Amino acid sequence: MQAPGHVDLAFRHACLAHTQEAVDILIHDRRIASIVKSAQTRGLVEIDAQAGLVTSGLMEPHIHFDKALTGDRVPTECLGDLRTRRGLEIAIEVARNIKRAFTVEDVRKRAIRAALMASRAETTALRTHVDVDSIVSLTGIRGVLEAREVCAGWIDIQIVAFPQKGIFRSVGAQQLMRQAIKLGADAVGGAPSLDDRPQDHVRAVFDLASEFGLPVDMHVDESDWREDFTLPLVIEAARQRRVPNVTVAHISSLSVQIDDVARSTIAAPAETEVHVVVNPIIVKFTRLRALLDAGVSVIFGSDNLRDPFYTLGAANPLESALFACQIAALGTPQDIRRVFDAVSSNAARMLSFTSLLGVAERPWRILLYSRRRHTRGSCPGSTASVIRAQGGISLPLDWLVNQRHPMINYHLLILCKRVSVSYKRVLNGRHHVNAETSARGQSGNRFLTMNEESACLRSHPNSVMN
Length: 466
Hints:
By secondary structure, this protein is of the alpha/beta class. It has 15 helices and 18 strands. The strands form 4 sheets. It has an 8-stranded parallel β-sheet with strand order 6-7-8-9-10-11-12-13.
């Protein structure tokens, strides 16, 4: 794309995730106008990245907003060990009891709070699985749909209709799934190993996805039982059925299969272009390094957020990536690049976002991680600096030319622990920002507190957070 004579924003001397040489990135009319070695075009806002890493906002591929932030409703004696099948069953049963009290209002408020947490972790798009069953019916779907409308200006939320009680063991599940899709669900979920008829479950999920033209995103083999091994069924269905894309999450039981079976299975997701979401902070870990070595599109997810399945969590993709590095002993430069791809370019493809050098052409937010904070031995542009960085500049570009958005006081900021320039100041003329400039002593140049974020939400015409 050819750059105009002037642009809204120009990053100078920036490095991308997989390049060593610094480049200039020009942003105009909410789009990347060009990425070149040296651009003469001037920007209304000029930022000297000083060879820091520039990337798009991060993406969360797997979370459960309908159950998020309900951990305080769980009796202490009911918390199980999710590394085991029995622990998983206990958590599911506790969640069922909690869901009986859900209302649309309750789900919506918690989903908005969870979205705020994700946004503060620089997440700009996410996919949430929402239970659809005879207990909660469509309450979770309706609540998250309303939250999505409130949050639409600052985070993109995709919804998966998730039949956690099964399709064939839960009366009316298929009809509820259809209704959820018609209400606005973006993908068809499933959990074949938790149903009475796993093969029929897989077939039903793919039939629905094919009928409505939606992607498939399933919980697969979420236990340490070797018998819970439905991944081959899903892979075979992906080969035969035409759906936009297929994602499998967890595949934990792959870790307990014999090596020959595991090796032959691991090659299949790459061949069929099936995405694999690994959730390192909660469920028994799968064969991550083998999946990466096989060229599988791996993405890291948060999964549960302070709920009956996991009472901690921060909805932070980089935190999930770091945990994956620690658990699987990933530490080489190649490892770190692949890990960063998992929460950026791989996640973008899974969520069907166009990707350009790891940066979406129409980015919601661009992040700058200062080179000054690199650990010794890391190279400019290496993804290691992202995971190890402590702070950076965050630019919500979707608002660069939209001054009247009701959330402007929150989002039209360049947020950094050391640099923060409000967009209102930028409007008065060209503004230059140096990545090393200290913002101390400048009124208003700071992160917003949770109370301030809530106040911003209340100012939104679609919000009823009172």
